[in-house]
Specification:
By secondary structure, this protein is α+β, with helices and mostly antiparallel strands. It has 7 helices and 6 strands, in the order αββαααββαβαβα. The chain has helices at 3-8, 33-41, 44-48, 58-70, 99-102, 122-138, 152-160; strands at residues 14-16, 23-27, 74-80, 86-96, 104-113, 142-145.
Length: 176
């Protein structure tokens, strides 16, 4: 089964039911770029890395969106409130591998919930959908993510959801 078919099998949009009320999880569209940029800029760690939603960077973000959208191993998702405004986002990537007897992993990246809605259950509903619905339907046996060491609250959140801090990550920034 191709990854495109697998992501299509997720049957999005779906309704998530966090305590604050129902929201819709769906694939992001090019019209969501501005809202996604605002979510990134709303996060101090992302903002410190240059995600400030500057109009000067719009072309780079549009190129990134189109690259993600065109890659069958990736899906960029958003959560919309009942009025339709985007209040959360995340990216999913299916990674086939040799380790763990050829296990396929589901990588979760760039999880962001609007700062005024955090601790309202939206992130938990998103991650439960990832582990309970997306991972099994995509045929992945492991869901993994990385979280900046500065995100202490996020670490507690992921641990409460059953994620285990099992590895230490390393990054290398390639010079311009």
């Amino acid at each position: 089964m191709s990854v495109i078919t697998a992501f299509d099998a997720l049957a999005l949009p779906v309704t998530l039911d966090p305590p604050a009320g129902p929201v819709q999880l769906r694939f992001a569209t090019v019209d969501d770029i501005e809202s996604i940029l605002e979510l990134l800029a709303d996060d101090p760690v992302s903002a410190s890395r240059g995600d400030t939603a500057s109009p000067d960077d719009r072309a780079a973000y549009e190129a990134a969106f189109h690259a993600i959208d065109a890659d069958p191993a990736n899906a960029l998702l958003v959560v919309a409130a009942p009025r339709g405004d985007v209040i959360a986002t995340m990216q999913l990537t299916v990674i086939p591998g040799m380790a763990r007897v050829g296990a396929t992993r589901l990588q979760v990246e760039a999880v962001r919930v609007s700062s005024d809605l955090r601790s309202g259950g939206i992130g938990g509903a998103m991650m439960r959908w990832v582990t309970e619905v997306a991972a099994p339907q995509l045929g992945t046996s492991l869901v993994q993510l990385t979280s900046d060491e500065a995100r202490i609250d996020a670490h507690r959140f992921y641990t409460r959801l059953g994620f285990v801090p099992s590895h230490q990550g390393f990054k290398f920034t390639v010079p311009d």
